[in-house]
Amino acid sequence: MKKMMLVVLIVGSAMISPVQVKADVSMPCSAVLEPVTTDNANAKGAALVYKVKLTPSFPRTSVSIHANHLPVPSTAGDYDGYEGFTFIPNEISWRFKLFPTPEEGSPTWAGRIDDITADITNSTMEVRLSNTKTGKLGPVILRNTMNACK
Prior knowledge:
Layout: H1 2-16, E1 29-35, E2 44-52, E3 60-68, E4 81-88, E5 92-100, E6 109-116, E7 124-130, E8 137-145
Antiparallel strand pairs: 1-2, 1-8, 2-3, 3-6, 4-5, 4-7, 5-6, 7-8
């Protein structure tokens, strides 16, 4: 009976309060965003993550993304741009527009969001296709996690 109680206690405590795996990430940091398919092997990006204090209130987290050699958005369907997409799985997400530079051929796409208040230690950062007219977010082109942030 004592063994049975011990097993129930151990299993019950593991189910009720599972250990959360947290990355050991200090800010500021950056992560290389890698292509999710071999179709976009030349595409690469970088995410810069750090704390900013833009108002008298508490600091926020800023995520900025810089991406190069992305395919022309319309080649993947009904898309006309790119967005940065940062999310904590099953919790919250943030979208922000990436703007192209005026370079010909293959512009650099860049943008940022400065008002994240959540702890984004276990988040993922992506570059995704988007349709600015419909608000539709498309497939992921580049991705990495805060665990890769150095």
